[in-house]
Amino acid sequence: MLPDTEMAAAPLIVHLIHRLDVGGLENGLINLINHLPPGRYRHAIVCLRDYTDYHLRIERPGVEIISINKRDGKDWGHYLRLFQTLKRLQPLLIHTRNLSGIEGQLLAACAGVRLRVHGEHGRDIDDLHGLSLKYRCLRKLLRPLIGHFIAVSKDLEAWLIGTIGARPHRVTHIGNGVDSLQFHPRLGPPAAIGPAGFLCEDAYVIGSVGRMAEVKDHLSLVQAFVLLIAEHALPRDRLRLLIAGDGPCRQACLDLLRQAGLEELAWLPGTRDDIPQLMRAMDVFVLPSLTEGMSNTILEAMATGLPVVATAVGGNPDLVHSGWTGTLVPARSPAMLADAINDYYRLPALAASHGQRGRRRVLAEYSLIAMADAYLAVYDALAAPPQRDR
């Protein structure tokens, strides 16, 4: 461990996010802080709303976490609180993320923060394709204040350059990384998970992990599960559905399962902290999102050696090579989700080969160290003293 004096002398980076809770963006931020070289930079996380126990995953000492406690709607006072926080912290660099954080660029400039980075990690249900005139104008207005952009997918990189007007040399595409030691293929029989009777002998588990919000469209997965039994005639005594995560759409999924008489074949346990173990109990991983930046859960499923069925949106095609490591289908298409899952059920050798190729790809291209090194290169380049002409 580095001496306290050395840590205190390191430049400070403030990471501005909406809320520190379970989520892909938040998981990526914590992985980044945990894997950057100790002592190069100090870190503080400023949450526009608040934070949960999820922050306990941070392994680096001395990371201050601050809540601005922004209220719903227009809370003009939160701008003053954010400005005062930045003045107190006096960071070398601020790194804002997504639409909710981009206004922090203006407050940071007013507070004298010299280096400013903005990352785009994905969109929400209000603007699935980045076409909202209001949000485009806001990003274009703040664009001159941003020293560098980071996009987690090629789709977002092209959008920042082509639609928002960011200069190509000021945009870097950095994919997420995954812990391939924690997420690894099943080494024996699946662990006993779920309530009594959920995992039967020779169960075939269709799984998904994520925030159960409208943009993730887990309802389409539940509809596909119903179709697999009602139309594809897959056996009830084998088929199981597991969706780990919580959110406003969880109850609608439970209601549909109950109406179809399939609730005893499904387990929707809410938020869990044993995702690696749950994934090793799955036979196929499904992500039915309406939009994505770069999905951490797809990477985790690939690292686990699972074939992946995902929608062909956002950064998903960057990760899932359809017909090679998984299958891509259109969004909002339960029937095509069911067809793709049925193929893997009927052809276990195909599922195994796609899963093996996915893990090999993760090991070669999506390590946490590679991700941290790419972010570090951006931070170091901005922090480097300007070169004087000789």
Q: Could you explain the architecture of this structure?
A:
- Helix 2 crosses helix 15 (368-383).
- With 390 residues, the chain is of the alpha/beta class.
- The mean pLDDT is 94.
- The chain is elongated.
- The protein has helices at 4-9, 24-35, 77-89, 98-102, 104-110, 133-142, 154-164, 218-230, 250-259, 275-279, 296-303, 316-319, 334-346, 348-365, 368-383, and strands at residues 12-17, 42-47, 64-67, 93-97, 115-120, 148-151, 171-173, 204-209, 239-244, 266-270, 284-287, 308-311, 326-329.
- The chain has 2 domains: 4-177 and 368-383, Rossmann fold (3-Layer(aba) Sandwich), CATH 3.40.50; 204-365, 3-Layer(aba) Sandwich (Rossmann fold), CATH 3.40.50.2000.
- The strands form 2 sheets. Strands 3-2-1-4-5-6-7 form a 7-stranded parallel beta sheet, sandwiched between helices.
- Helix 8 (218-230) links the parallel strand 8 and strand 9 (239-244).
Can you lay out the helices and strands and say which pair or pack?
Blueprint: H1 4-9, E1 12-17, H2 24-35, E2 42-47, E3 64-67, H3 77-89, E4 93-97, H4 98-102, H5 104-110, E5 115-120, H6 133-142, E6 148-151, H7 154-164, E7 171-173, E8 204-209, H8 218-230, E9 239-244, H9 250-259, E10 266-270, H10 275-279, E11 284-287, H11 296-303, E12 308-311, H12 316-319, E13 326-329, H13 334-346, H14 348-365, H15 368-383
Parallel strand pairs: 1-2, 1-4, 2-3, 4-5, 5-6, 6-7, 8-9, 8-11, 9-10, 11-12, 12-13
Helix pairs in contact: 2-15, 3-5, 8-9, 8-13, 11-14, 13-14
Pfam families: Glyco_trans_1_4, Glyco_transf_4
Domain Glycosyltransferase subfamily 4-like N-terminal: 22-179
GO molecular function: glycosyltransferase activity
